[in-house]
Structure formats: structure tokens, C-alpha cells
Amino acid sequence: MVKLNDIKGLIFDYGGTIDTNSRHWAEVLWEHYVKYNVPVSKEQFREAYVYGERKLAREPLICPGHNFADVLFIKVKIQITYLTEAGFLQKNEVEEKNYISLIASGCYQYVLNVLKRTRPVLDKLSHSYKMVLVSNFYGNIQTILKDFSLDTFFSSVIESSVVGVRKPDPAIYQMGVDALNLPASQVLVIGDSFSKDVVPAKKVGCKVVWLKGEGWGNEEIDESLPDLKITDLPDLLSYV
User: Fold this and answer.
1) Residue 72 class from Cβ within 10 Å (0-12 exposed, 13-18 middle, 19+ buried)?
2) Residue 68 CB: number of other CB atoms within 10 A?
3) Contacts from 42-46 at CB under 8 Å and sequence distance 24+?
4) How far apart are CA 84 and CA 144, in angstroms?
5) CB 16 within 8 A of CB 192
6) Full-prediction pTM beyond 0.85?
7) What's the confidence (pLDDT) of residue 3?
8) Contact yes or no for 209/238 (Cβ under 8 A)
């Protein structure tokens, strides 16, 4: 078995890693669109998802006090509004079927179920390693960590909207290394995105575990770049 030696500190990604255990959020959302029989194609949903993410990146619609239930409602409302205005959904059907609340609450419950697997991993590792979170988020990650009882595991949180640097810029991972006050060679990064976690973390000299799962899109992948590949976060405990 491969062992990751000389590791003194850990940097975790949040979205797609801790909250969905390797599934891209677009796939989680699409699963719930299907579950609640929203009559749109995956390509139409993809358009709405991309539109929504870009809108949230431009406009401060999510506030520091919003928890993840709030975030999901805002995200899904933007998507459904886009689909309605584009003519893919009928407004009266959206209101009658209550799609926004159903999808948002279903996705929130999905995260609660995933955290039953991922939170114990963070808890165990936090007793042996100093840990930092590095995340592209909306300015409310501290509220979300507290909401999910994850806030005590991390000595520092580096959030893109707060520090003004976003993945895949390696500088945000350098901030995480600096927060640990360790050489990058002694830091292990755990993330689900090849382009946003694996590549920039390796550029600053960290070791990297790629939590490889259900992605979304056509990333160029170099399977030799990560130091380790896993598909389930609890598997990490066998290597550190």
C-alpha cells in the first residue's frame, strides 16, 4: 500500500469533496431535477447551471449569513427562472409543482447524508494534523461550516471571495500552505477537481490526493500528476 510520508498538514477543498464526496454539484442537482420530473433536457439544465454560476460570481446574491439551505434555494431559483424565461418551462407548472423548494431541500438532505461519511474522516484527521480549508465560495463558508458542525476542524479558512483569489490560481493554495506554516512538500491537498485542485496544488509543491468521481465537463487529465487517487473520502485514512 502506498503511504504518503512526511505529511505534517492537510488542505481540504470543500465543494465536491467534503459535501458530495467526489460528485460534481451539477450532477447532484441534475439528479434531483430528474427525481422531481422537471421536464427539461440535461443540455437545457447545463445552460441554466452555467448561467447561474456566472450570475453568482458577478452579483452578491449570497450573503455571509446564508447557510447552505439558503444557498441551494438561491441557486435553484436562478436556474429555474432561467429555464422559465428561456421557454423551457411553464411558469404555472413551476409554481404548481414547487420545483425550486423540492430540488433545494432534496439536495440539502443529500449533503446531510454524505456528511455522515465525510465528517468522521475530518474529525479523525484533525486529531493528528493541522488542517486548512481552501475553497472557491461566496463569502459564507464560515456559516456553512458552522451549520454542518465542521467549523472546529480547520485552523484557517481560505475563501476565494474573501481573499480575492480563485482556483485554479495556485496563489490560493500558497495561502493555504502559508497558513499551515509548513514547507509545501509537507502539505497534502485533498480535492475533487483535477484542474482546480490537483494542478494548482502541485504547482506550489504540495502532495495531492485526487478524490476522483463523477465530474462534469471535458477536462484534460494527466493521471500521473496526483500522488494518490481515491474515489471515497474515508479511503484517505488508509494512506495518512
Assistant:
1) buried
2) 20
3) 44/83, 44/86, 44/88, 45/79, 45/83
4) 29
5) yes
6) yes
7) 64
8) no
Q: Which three cell numbers stand for residue 47?
A: 445552460
- The CA angle 74-76-172, to the nearest 5 degrees, is 65
Locate 147 and state its grid cell. Answer: 451549520
Task: Look up residue 229 and give its three cell numbers.
Answer: 487517487
3-class secondary-structure state, position 209: strand
Are the C-beta atoms of residues 44 and 166 closer than 8 Å to each other? Answer: no
- What is the grid cell recorded at 236? 484517505
Alpha helix segments (H runs only) across the chain: 25-35, 42-58, 68-85, 91-97, 99-126, 141-147, 160-163, 170-180, 199-203
Q: What is the mean pLDDT of each run of 10 residues along the chain (240 residues)?
A: 81 97 95 98 97 94 97 98 97 95 98 98 98 96 97 97 96 98 97 96 97 76 93 96
Cβ contact 40:79 at 8 Å: no
Q: What 3-state class would DSSP assign to 22?
A: coil
Question: 142 to each of 65, 79, 147, 148, 194, how far by Cα in Å?
Answer: 9, 25, 9, 10, 25
pLDDT of residue 2: 57
Give residue 5's pLDDT: 82
Largest CA distance in the chain: 59
Within 10 Å of residue 56's Cβ, how many Cβ atoms?
A: 16
Measured from the Cβ of residue 31, the count of other Cβ atoms closer than 10 Å reads 16
